[in-house]
Amino acid sequence: MPRLAPASRVADLVLPTLAGDGPAYARLAEALRRGIVDGRLSEGVRLPSERDLTGPVGLSRTTVTRAYAELRAQGYLATRRGSGSVVQVPRVPGGRVDHLLTPAGLGEGALDLTVTAAAAPPGIADAYARAHEDLGAYLTGTGYYPSGLPVLRERIADRFTARGLVTTPDQILVAPGALAAVAISLRALIRRRDQVLVETPTYPNAIATLQGAGARVVPHPIDHVDHDWEVEALERAVQQSGLRAAYLIPDFHNPTGALMSSAQRERVGRLLRRHGVVPVVDESQAELALEGQSVPEPLAAHVPTAVTAGSASKSFWGGLRVGWLRVPRARMEAVAASRLQLDLGVPVLEQLVLGHLLDRADEILPEQRARLRERRDTLLRALRERLPDWQVRVPTGGMSLWCRLPEGSSTALAAAARRYDVALAAGPNFAAAGGLDGWMRLPFVLPPEQLEQVVPRLALAWEDVLAGRSGSGAREGAPQVDRQPCIIA
Predict the structure, then answer these.
(1) Do the beta carbons of residue 211 and residue 246 sit within 8 Å?
(2) What pLDDT does 107 receive?
(3) Rounded to whole angstroms, how far apart are CA atoms 415 and 77?
(4) Which of the two ends of the chain, N or C, has the fewest CB atoms closer than 10 A to its terminal CB?
(5) pLDDT value for 74
(6) What pLDDT shows up at residue 218?
(7) Residues facing 98 on adjacent strands
């Protein structure tokens, strides 16, 4: 029996938005639909009966019945014998996930752990509605804003300044996501065959982006257990290689969750300045501090030449493809020219949406962090119970666990897990120069009811690996694992 959403809770959710014009049933249906889209009424929840909801919302049973019928017609409710009206999300062609790691797609009930991105938090739908209201003012123009809407650039600049890095709107350039922002900056900073320092492990698509820009990757291992950037080793790498640039993730590093301390930032900044190395700093997860702690100042506060990339994909929603660059004024002309070689700007509507989300960030982000913290702890508890030999340091932020296997191969585990409908990204995908097959990234972004299935299935796959069954005996019809280093997030 699906869990029931109490009538009082549903009423608290819909009453603030019931006022307005139009039939009462349509207003109620829209309020309920908003609750579903925002995630406040999650898929699989049973709504109260029409009769039970009438009193709390102050509407007739006929009105509530018509509202439920409208939601069924739109695909947001399903009536099940003995279960009543159960929330569902309308199916879309091709499913809700499209990424390169599993081009054949995943079956019903499969668990996708190749993507580190969460569902949209409450507030997204409202931001889109407000953005639609604002859009009319822009329709008389061309719609081209290669650097980004001035109102959005101002909001992004203000957030940098509030974090300790004084920034003005003319230093901000809006891009279609953080990865595009990184690619734009690299095209402006390096020439083909230049050497670029990269942490290892690191974000796989960043490795591909560097290679696509013609860079020669110089790996710098970071400590997987103690979250230490080992500044002395970093200095040796810089001295020995003649680097021009570096790609660094100091804020809840992907995939380890490491957070560079303020003292380390000062030392790293001093080192990079001394050797003339320009860092491209990826701050995609900087807003995801899960323990309520203050995040240190941006690394660019210690390296005036740094170019900083950020994105709305992690902190708000992956479907909102808006990122940005914070660029030193001396480099803005070159970076802007690089940006124009790609396209003429991010869609106006999405920029307006992000502007409204940033206005409500102090309300939305704490809820997003609380959801991630709860899911992190759920996954950690299950690992301790079912796979206690796996070594995992508890990350204080970010969206994933970086797990050290006691033996065996993460590549073999990824192959074995597909037999249990789990898609994994093995450790070598995150290696800038090979290795890391003893490590596995486990995102904690899935809904709780799916996340609870992850470790039981992994435990079965791990038994297969230890028994030597990881490379054969796949279930009939099971998709083959794709071992190419193509990770969306």
Answers:
(1) no
(2) 65
(3) 37
(4) N
(5) 84
(6) 86
(7) none
- How many residues does this entry show for the chain? 489
Burial code (b: 16+ CB inside 10 Å, e: under 16) for 460-469 equals ebbebbeeeb
Residue 260's identity, in one-letter code, is M
Q: What is the pLDDT of residues 245-264, one digit of tens each?
A: 999 999 999 999 999 999 99
What gap in Å lies between CA 437 and CA 439, rounded to an integer? 5
Calculate the dihedral angle through the C-alpha atoms of 297, 377, 223, 253, rounding to the nearest 10 degrees. -40
Choose among 165, 224, 215: nearest CA to 195. 215
Is residue 56 within 8 A of residue 10, CB to CB? The reply is: yes
Residue 240: what pLDDT? 79
Q: Cα(first)–Cα(last) distance of the chain, in Å?
A: 35
Say how far apart CA 106 and CA 87 lie, in whole Å: 23
The pLDDT, as a whole number, for residue 291 is 94
196 within 8 A of 238, measured Cβ to Cβ:
no
Q: Among 67, 110, 107, 156, which Cα is nearest to 358's?
A: 156
Model pLDDT, residue 94:
42
Written as six digits, the tokens of 459 are 């435990």
Helices 24-37 & 7-14 angle (0-180, nearest 10): 100
Site of tokens 């690089």: 338
CB 445 within 8 A of CB 372: yes
Q: List, as one string, the DSSP characters of 76-111.
A: SEEEETTTEEEE-----TT-S---SS-TT---TT-E
pLDDT averages per 10-residue partition of the chain, 489 residues: 81 87 90 75 82 93 93 86 78 43 55 88 90 94 94 97 96 94 91 89 88 85 75 83 90 93 94 94 96 94 96 92 96 93 90 96 94 96 96 93 90 91 90 83 93 95 87 41 36
pTM of the model as a whole: 0.81
Contact 358, 369 (CB under 8 A): no
* Stretch (H or E) spanning 378: helix 361-386
User: What is the model's pLDDT at position 269?
Assistant: 95
Can you give the C-alpha Rg of the chain in angstroms? 24
pLDDT at 37: 64
Yes or no: say if 124 and 38 are a contact pair by the CB < 8 Å rule: yes
Q: Tokens 């822009």 identify what position?
A: 138
Rounded Cα distance between 437 and 361, Å, is 38
| Long-range contacts of residues 154-162, Cβ cutoff 8 Å, at least 24 apart | 155/355, 155/358, 155/359, 156/310, 156/324, 156/326, 156/358, 157/326, 159/358, 159/361, 160/298, 160/308, 160/326
User: Cis omega before residue 93 (within 30°)?
Assistant: no
